[in-house]
Amino acid sequence: RLWDVTDDGKTIIYSEGGEGTNWDLWSAEVDGQSEPRLLRRTAEHDVLGQFSPDEKWLAFGSRESGTWQVYVAPWPSMSPITQVSTTSGTWSRWTKEGRELVYLDQSGSLLTVSMTPDGDRMTVGTPEPLFEIAAPVLEAVYWTVSADGEKFLTVNTQTRDAPAYCNLVLGWPAILEGK
């Protein structure tokens, strides 16, 4: 499962089932000039890797503790690892400046937490609840946050019937302004 790609398109973060493990977290150079690199292997799931905007940090989800949690580690060393979520967490997204991480907890609440780099460690603030959407679904990303952290887009995951059609509106800000 592909999770993220660097801005230059050269490095991808993905997860793959491992022998004796559920999902392991890997990186690979797209040009194929080097072997893929194992980033994290535990007996449980290690997934959902997301680069920070400056690509100096990698946020990811793991169920190593028995509960889904969000972690962050310096890229590319991946050490030391800092836990971000306090009760549970998955599906994290950085805001544009990389000063906040937004994540979804197991109950369906979106939370935001301040992130301050401190050498090779990340100082993590206290997670603050934003609002409820729906419990996480590992197989699908159904929400995202705008770069400024002020707007959210989510999909109703409770609806199971496929819509008859979908409208994609390009240039919608100009339409709203009446241009």
Uncertain residue ranges: none
Outline the biggest β-sheet: 5 strands, antiparallel
The structure class reads mainly beta
What is the mean pLDDT?
Answer: 87
Strand content: 35-45%
Number of strands: 15
Fraction in helix: under 10%
Q: What order do the helices and strands follow?
A: EEEEEEEEEEEEEEEH
Instruction: Please report the distance between the alpha carbons of the first and last residues.
Output: 41 Å
What gyration radius follows from the Cα positions, in whole Å? 17 Å
Continuous helix count: 1
Shape from CA axes?
globular
Short description:
With 179 residues, the chain is mostly beta strands. It has one helix and 15 strands, in the order βββββββββββββββα.
What's the helix and strand layout?
Blueprint: E1 2-5, E2 11-16, E3 24-29, E4 37-40, E5 46-51, E6 57-62, E7 69-74, E8 82-83, E9 90-94, E10 100-104, E11 109-118, E12 121-124, E13 128-132, E14 143-145, E15 152-154, H1 172-176
Antiparallel strand pairs: 1-2, 2-3, 3-4, 5-6, 6-7, 7-8, 9-10, 10-11, 11-12, 11-13, 14-15
